């Protein structure tokens, strides 16, 4: 993991003091509501339905047991004993008191954490594959570049007041697990014909009101030019992005308006001036940052030790291993996904006691390392196969062992109308109703891999557009209704789902899901996944089934 | 011009007058900061005072290129503090067009922007009239370092850091 040096600590503490001064001036009436708003947002503080909401950054989803214990402490001391993991791999606290937020930030700074740029019209937390560094299909470990981007984007003096928020994702593996195609900038590590590693740069992807898949503006960017190229893209956006209408202000609208060719040409023009400038990365720079992301002290182990395989006779354990663990680059190890999708608990929510339990498990079984995934689950990246059974038992004890990773009930979900001011509809009770409808594990396993994504409004924090099945909360004359989309997907074949028809009342959503799943089971061929059947037969059969008049 | 910070101090008795619109009158003796179109009209006419120019966010700094050598001052307007285009303009003027004169931030300029504005090359700040410039001055010292290559510190932190370690 990256370790702060004196300068990193100093900058974060200076930001805490700057924010303390801003908060005090606001409370004293020296800063107006309108002036304080962007300042607090740039430090992750929203004013929500019930109270302020503080979003704490977990850069590229990496953190330690020490940091997790601090989050637990903050949840207990300043909040109501829990937190919520988000689709940007961050964590949110829903109940802090405004005047105490600077103290929370000071506590976070002690463990190398902050809330810098977790909101606001600036460069947000860079996200990446939650399995970076341990995935078997990785071309390079992108984390050194993630940290380089984190530092470049942190308190960037030129790009603090962009037209709108700006999100960057990095994928270092052949399988894109970082949704790079729906980011303002997606960086996909690729190998060129000469065998060199570089980035394919996509710009202008995004969800929200206008879902668009990002377009390639550069097929191959040699890694030493990463920062100068990012500067060029951001400068073109900062200068020419629309500022007259916040719904047209994302870079995707600029790219669309200019055409991707014209946009790419403009960036190239700008980049010609910046290329080979002082921010060009040398091998020594990259090596320095990569030195923080070396392998932990793995043991040389045989795969499938008897103590592990014997236990697979126990069906519940075998199920959990199948869904909630993942192949590791080292023999004898697996990555464990701790499900935050237990039925009855809002997706992504975690109590302070659970946070401590995860920290303990990370220390005991996994070198103290934890990852947060954009699917709102937690990961222990390096667990010995011989210890999986014990880990499973502990996970069960603490409520993380629901064997549903990648299944229909592993719902990506925003906090919705229960907490969020922007939401048109509640998401949490509807997600729970779906989870209850599909509580039969045999049936759930039979349905197989299905991404179900749920957003409470068109801002799309729950990424509903790229769910194989997506739900969007809409407001109809002050009532909550739900639109269902099918055919969305993330990863290498990113697609935006299509709405199947008129929206549903809350009570009717689970039944609509059931009809869709029944049709899928009837129609699937040769073990097709849900998304493959949807692609093959199209939406019409689903529409007919769901909207058929009952006799 | 009132409420001015320059060279890290509050300045009293600045001679420059900001001419906001083309129909605003000014005398031949005054030091004036003019809209670009007015400046282009006036720059070759007799004027006893000094002439400077201010740019709106949507204007292109490249248009100033032929005139920069003769300009003692360029002002960049921030119609709203949330409009960040002026930060890019400042860097372009300093880094690409090698502008050496005074670069003044005008408009909705408040304490919490000053640190970033200084990093991108502004050296003078007209604090919004309803705020105290002496109080805003503290904003210049919000941060003692920055990660990026900037006008004030052209070597990014990572290079300075790595050279320390390699050395």
Would you mind describing this structure in some detail?
The complex is a heterodimer of chains A (551) and B (167). Chain A is an alpha+beta fold and 551 residues long. Chain A has four domains: 6-110, Alpha-Beta Complex (Sulfite Reductase Hemoprotein, domain 2), CATH 3.90.480.20; 127-288, Sulfite Reductase Hemoprotein, domain 1 (2-Layer Sandwich), CATH 3.30.413.10; 306-398, Alpha-Beta Complex (Sulfite Reductase Hemoprotein, domain 2), CATH 3.90.480; 412-547, Sulfite Reductase Hemoprotein, domain 1. Chain A has helices at 6-27, 33-41, 65-78, 101-110, 143-153, 226-240, 251-258, 260-274, 283-290, 306-309, 315-324, 352-365, 388-398, 428-437, 441-447, 509-523, 530-537, 540-547, and strands spanning 45-47, 52-56, 62-64, 82-85, 91-93, 127-128, 168-171, 185-191, 197-203, 215-221, 325-327, 333-338, 349-351, 369-372, 378-384, 412-413, 452-455, 469-476, 479-486, 498-499, 504-505. In chain A, the strands form four sheets. In chain A, strands 16, 17, 18, 19, 20 and 21 form a six-stranded mixed β-sheet that branches. Chain A has a five-stranded antiparallel β-sheet with strand order 1-2-5-4-13. In chain A, strands 3-14-15-12-11 form a five-stranded antiparallel β-sheet. In chain A, strand 4 and strand 5 form a beta hairpin. The longest helix of chain A has 22 residues, at 6-27. Chain A starts with 5 loop residues before the first helix and ends with a helix. Helix content of chain B is 23%, strand content 20%. Chain B has one domain (4-166): 3-Layer(aba) Sandwich (Rossmann fold). Chain B starts with a strand and ends with a helix. The interface between A and B is large, with 39 and 35 residues.
């Amino acid at each position: 993991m990256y370790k702060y040096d004196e300068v990193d600590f100093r900058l974060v503490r200076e930001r805490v003091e700057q924010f303390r001064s801003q908060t005090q001036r606001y409370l004293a009436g020296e800063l107006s509501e309108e002036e304080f708003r962007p300042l607090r947002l740039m430090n992750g503080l929203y004013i929500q339905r019930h109270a302020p909401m503080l979003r704490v950054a977990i850069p590229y989803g990496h953190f330690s047991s020490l940091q997790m214990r601090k989050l637990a402490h903050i949840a207990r001391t300043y909040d109501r004993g829990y937190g919520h993991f988000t689709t940007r791999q961050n964590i949110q606290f829903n109940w802090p008191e405004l005047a105490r937020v600077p103290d929370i930030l000071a506590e976070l700074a002690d463990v190398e954490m902050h809330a810098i740029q977790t909101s606001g019209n600036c460069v947000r937390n860079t996200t990446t594959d939650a399995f970076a560094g341990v995935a078997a299909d990785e071309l390079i470990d992108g984390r050194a570049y993630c940290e380089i981007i984190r530092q470049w984007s942190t308190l960037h003096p030129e790009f603090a007041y962009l037209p709108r928020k700006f999100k960057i994702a990095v994928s270092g593996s052949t399988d894109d697990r970082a949704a790079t195609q729906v980011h303002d900038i997606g960086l996909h590590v690729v190998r060129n014909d000469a065998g060199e590693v570089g980035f394919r740069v996509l710009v202008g992807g995004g969800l929200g009101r206008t879902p668009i898949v990002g377009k390639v503006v550069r097929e191959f960017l040699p890694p030493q030019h990463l920062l100068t190229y990012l500067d060029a893209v951001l400068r073109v956006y900062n200068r020419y992005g629309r500022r007259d209408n916040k719904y047209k202000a994302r870079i995707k609208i600029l790219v669309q308006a200019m055409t991707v060719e014209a946009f790419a040409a403009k960036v190239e023009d700008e980049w010609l001036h910046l290329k080979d400038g002082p921010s060009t990365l040398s091998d020594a720079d990259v090596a320095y940052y990569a030195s923080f992301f070396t392998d932990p002290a793995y043991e040389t182990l045989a795969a499938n030790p008897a103590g592990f395989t014997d236990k697979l006779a126990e069906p519940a354990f075998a199920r959990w291993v199948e869904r909630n663990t993942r192949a590791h680059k080292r023999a004898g190890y697996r990555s464990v996904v701790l499900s935050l999708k237990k039925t009855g608990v809002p997706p992504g929510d975690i109590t302070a006691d659970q946070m401590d339990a995860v920290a303990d498990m990370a220390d005991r079984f996994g070198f103290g390392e934890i990852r947060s995934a954009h699917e709102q689950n937690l990961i222990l990246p390096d667990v010995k196969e011989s210890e999986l059974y014990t880990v499973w038992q502990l996970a069960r004890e603490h409520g993380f062992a629901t064997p549903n990773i990648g299944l229909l009930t592993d719902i990506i979900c925003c906090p919705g109308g229960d907490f969020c001011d922007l939401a048109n509809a509640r998401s949490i009770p509807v997600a729970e109703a779906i989870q209850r409808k599909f509580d039969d594990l045999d049936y759930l396993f039979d349905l197989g891999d299905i991404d179900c994504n749920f957003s409470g409004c068109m801002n799309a924090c729950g990424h509903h557009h790229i769910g194989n099945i997506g739900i969007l909360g809409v407001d109809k004359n002050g009532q909550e209704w739900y639109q269902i989309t099918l055919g969305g997907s993330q990863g290498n074949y990113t697609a935006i789902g299509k709405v199947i028809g008129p929206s549903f009342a809350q009570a009717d959503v689970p039944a609509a899901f059931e009809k869709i799943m029944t049709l899928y089971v009837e129609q699937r061929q040769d073990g097709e996944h849900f998304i493959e059947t949807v692609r093959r037969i199209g939406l019409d059969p689903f529409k007919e089934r769901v909207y058929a008049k009952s006799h | 011009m009132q409420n001015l910070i320059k060279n890290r101090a509050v300045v009293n008795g600045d001679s420059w007058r900001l001419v906001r619109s083309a129909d605003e009158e000014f005398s031949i003796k005054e030091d004036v900061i003019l809209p670009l179109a007015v400046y282009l009209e006036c720059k070759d006419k007799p004027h006893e005072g000094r002439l400077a120019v201010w740019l709106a966010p949507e204007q292109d700094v490249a248009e100033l290129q032929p005139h920069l050598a003769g300009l003692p001052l360029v002002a960049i307007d921030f119609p709203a503090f949330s409009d960040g285009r002026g930060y890019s303009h400042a860097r372009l003027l300093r880094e690409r067009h090698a502008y050496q004169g005074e670069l003044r931030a005008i408009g909705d300029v408040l304490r919490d922007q000053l640190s970033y504005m200084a990093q991108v090359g502004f050296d003078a700040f007209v604090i919004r009239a309803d705020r105290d410039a002496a109080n805003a001055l503290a904003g210049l010292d919000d941060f003692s370092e920055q990660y990026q290559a900037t006008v004030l510190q052209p070597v990014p932190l990572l290079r300075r850091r790595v050279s320390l370690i390699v050395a």
